[in-house]
Amino acid sequence: MAKVSSKGTVKKQKVVVDAFGEVHISASFNNIIISLTNKNGEVVSWSSAGKMGFRGSKKNTPYAAQVAAEDAVKKAYDSGIRKAKVYVKGPGNGRESAIRTIHNFGIEITEIVDVTPIPHNGCRPPKKRRV
């Protein structure tokens, strides 16, 4: 949480960064969001296809995921993250290309985990129709 000083300005909280972190990739049908966190889950850097300037259907392309991953990884690598565990969520197109880009920029990937939510019994069906 951001801290408010006595003058009313907001100061950013400094995040403690180890060499080991986590990468969370959320790939929906409309966008892809990549967050790099430390072991406690505090975000070190993040990026998305929309933040990188892609609009409409171009946001859910492997190229947009690659550009977003580059942006997030550059900041995290400068902060000190060298190894990461990757959590992938969602059915989007850019999942594999984002992981490949993270690996190519010097962050060693130790494990890839798919955390896509799966419905066990689905939604409740509508009531019977009365005529």
From TrEMBL:
InterPro entries referenced in this protein's UniProt entry, alphabetically: Ribosomal_uS11 (IPR001971), Ribosomal_uS11_bac-type (IPR019981), Ribosomal_uS11_sf (IPR036967)
Signal peptide feature range: none
Cellular component GO terms held in the UniProt record: ribonucleoprotein complex; ribosome
Keyword Ribonucleoprotein: yes
Any GO MF annotation of the entry: structural constituent of ribosome
GO biological process: translation
Keywords for the protein's UniProt record, in alphabetical order: Ribonucleoprotein, Ribosomal protein, RNA-binding, rRNA-binding
Entry similarity comment: Belongs to the universal ribosomal protein uS11 family.
PANTHER family: 40S RIBOSOMAL PROTEIN S14/30S RIBOSOMAL PROTEIN S11
NCBIfam families hit by this protein: PRK05309.1 (NF003698), uS11_bact (TIGR03632)
Protein name: Small ribosomal subunit protein uS11c
Natural source organism: Elysia marginata
